[in-house]
Q: What sequence folds into this?
């Protein structure tokens, strides 16, 4: 079996394991989704009741909720291994670190995609955003955002999960890094919902893709050093 | 022009900050060197 | 020591550049005296970025070579960098209030980028502080430093586009000073401050590196002291048990 084949097998196996534990531990994933929904609700109380203002703020609020929920998600995906001491065991096996990273990042992206996708109807209802025909490009933006967040989230969650003060370290490290992702995702969301009058959507999508690619490459390259811990 | 206050604030904080940091480093280096000499002294005494 | 001489030269250079920027060079026609802030603001920003370049490269080199001296250099870069970043933001605010009327301007890409730079590297320093094992600390810090450095260009483009893909520089644009049509005296004043600050920067990096090495040795001695004590304790315990066994 070639190295690539073996790597892919490992990655898929890890992703599948994470997906199963996510589905089995339904409470945890569901709780995170509910938390994000409550955040959206609270934004309504903080910025409302003017529905015009909320409608304008909606894309930003959506992505903030995704980011906050995402922090919990990425931490959770690494918590299981940390508790079991599986990281140390993984480090012993002669498996390509990048394959392990790929598997975790894939699981993370999938979890983020589910989170983001399920928050779309919540935002549509709470802030009165007619999504309609824009749902497909909107979903594409969510996919790109999910991949980028998971790419950096996997690396940083792996780093912080065994640390002191881990609850604050993951957000502290992640939030500045994802600032451009947040910015671009919100702008792209605005463009998809508003018909893109300025023709900006292409540029923002490019930025998202660039972020995703760069973070995936750097994440894969450095994950091994974090496992050797 | 009240701009002068801002110029003074800018230069004051920045140049003053550099000076403070320089002094801070000097002090910490001195403390570390003294601690290090004390440790070497202990080793010599043990011998 | 050569370092001390460098320190003195840097001191003289900074004093000279400051006198030049404050008293010798004339005020700007439009911005007035606020223009003088630009010299320290731009110089600080330049060295902030340089510092984080050092941190990222030293960290990368550490991952390759596992030499803890490289980690010490990375730490020096980050701490000095955080300081210059804070200065750059402060300078930006001290320039912004008289010129724009506000301390903060979301539409200024350099201010927002620098603020993120500060956040990134404060996180780096906190991460280091919360990790005790030197090798682990060095590896984690190297990864974070690398990722942060890679993020900066992305941030740069995103905030520039954020301001408006079709909008050119506004009137109160700080980068005007780097414009080829700026008066020669201003450009020279900026270069003088930049040169002086660079000397200071090198001096501070060296000193912070020295401190890091000293503190690492102390840390290492303390750790070995504990190991020795534990070993001695274990031997003692075996000695006590033998007669009973």
A:
């Amino acid at each position: 079996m070639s190295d690539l084949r073996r790597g892919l097998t490992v990655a898929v196996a890890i992703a599948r394991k994470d997906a199963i534990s996510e589905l089995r531990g339904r409470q945890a994933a569901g709780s995170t989704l509910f938390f994000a929904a409550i955040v959206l609700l609270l934004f309504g109380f903080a910025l409302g009741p003017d529905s015009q203002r909320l409608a304008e703020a909606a894309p930003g609020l959506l992505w903030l909720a995704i980011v906050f929920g995402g922090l919990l998600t990425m931490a959770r995906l690494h918590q299981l291994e940390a508790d079991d001491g599986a990281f140390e065991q993984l480090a012993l096996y002669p498996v390509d670190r990048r394959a392990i990273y790929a598997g975790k990042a894939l699981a993370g992206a999938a979890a983020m995609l589910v989170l983001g996708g399920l928050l779309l109807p919540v935002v549509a209802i709470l802030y009165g955003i007619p999504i309609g025909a824009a749902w497909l490009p909107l979903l594409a933006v969510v996919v790109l955002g999910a991949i980028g967040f998971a790419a950096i989230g996997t690396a940083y969650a792996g780093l912080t999960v065994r640390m002191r003060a881990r609850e604050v370290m993951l957000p502290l490290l992640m939030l500045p890094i994802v600032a451009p992702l947040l910015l671009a995702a919100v702008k792209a969301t605005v463009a998809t919902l508003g018909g893109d009058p300025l023709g900006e959507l292409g540029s923002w999508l490019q930025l998202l893709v660039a972020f995703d690619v760069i973070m995936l490459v750097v994440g894969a390259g450095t994950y091994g050093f974090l496992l050797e811990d | 022009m009240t701009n002068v206050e801002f110029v003074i604030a800018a230069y004051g904080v920045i140049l003053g900050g550099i000076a403070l940091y320089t002094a801070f480093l000097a002090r910490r280096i001195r403390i570390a060197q003294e601690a290090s000499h004390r440790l070497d002294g202990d080793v010599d005494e043990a011998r | 020591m050569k370092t001390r001489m460098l320190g003195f030269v840097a001191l003289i250079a900074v004093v000279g550049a400051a006198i030049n920027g404050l008293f010798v060079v004339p005020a700007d026609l439009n911005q007035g005296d606020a223009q003088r802030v630009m010299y320290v603001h731009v110089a600080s920003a330049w060295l902030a970025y340089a510092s984080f370049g050092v941190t990222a490269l030293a960290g990368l080199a550490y991952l390759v070579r596992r030499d803890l001296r490289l980690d010490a250099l990375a730490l020096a870069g980050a701490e000095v960098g955080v300081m210059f970043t804070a200065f750059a933001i402060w300078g930006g605010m001290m320039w912004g209030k008289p010129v724009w009327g506000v301390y903060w301007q979301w539409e200024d890409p350099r201010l927002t980028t620098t603020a993120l730079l500060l956040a990134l590297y404060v996180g780096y320093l906190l991460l280091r502080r919360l990790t005790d094992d030197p090798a682990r600390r060095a590896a984690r810090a190297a990864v974070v430093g690398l990722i942060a450095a890679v993020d900066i260009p992305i941030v740069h483009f995103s905030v520039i586009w954020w301001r408006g893909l079709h909008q050119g520089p506004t009137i109160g644009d700080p980068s005007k000073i780097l414009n080829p049509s700026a008066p020669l005296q201003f450009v020279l004043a900026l270069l003088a401050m930049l040169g002086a600050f660079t000397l200071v920067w090198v001096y501070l990096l060296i000193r912070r590196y020295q401190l890091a090495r000293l503190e690492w040795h102390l840390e290492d001695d303390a750790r070995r002291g504990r190991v020795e004590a534990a070993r001695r304790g274990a031997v003692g315990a075996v000695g006590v048990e033998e007669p009973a066994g």
Notes: The CA atoms of residues 184 and 207 of chain A lie 7 Å apart.
